[in-house]
What we know:
This protein has 115 residues and is an alpha+beta fold.
Amino acid sequence: MNLQTLIHSDGAENTIIMMTGADLRRLIDDTNAWTRKVVEEQHQPRYFDIDDLMKLFKVGRTTIYNWMNSGKLPEPMAIPDTDKKLWDQAEIRDWVASGRVGKYKQIKPFKTIQL
């Protein structure tokens, strides 16, 4: 059996792990896949615009404006020198999780969406 040596250091101590070349390759592939996923998640947009909210809640622009004007929707950020407004994704997630959106529109539980 062809064993490969992997030395892991956590700063305090070193650990030597012996494994086959195939197992080491799988470990490296799994680690690379996990790293790519983390990097992709970090680069997801942190804000929703009105079109994103319309897709998420399956409602029209007028409904979003009505929710904004009545104070039902979390306060958006205004982009200077434009009419564009953005909502923080975390605030929208919290709003959905709190059940407040259910008073206005029945939707499925919040899931990460690709926009």
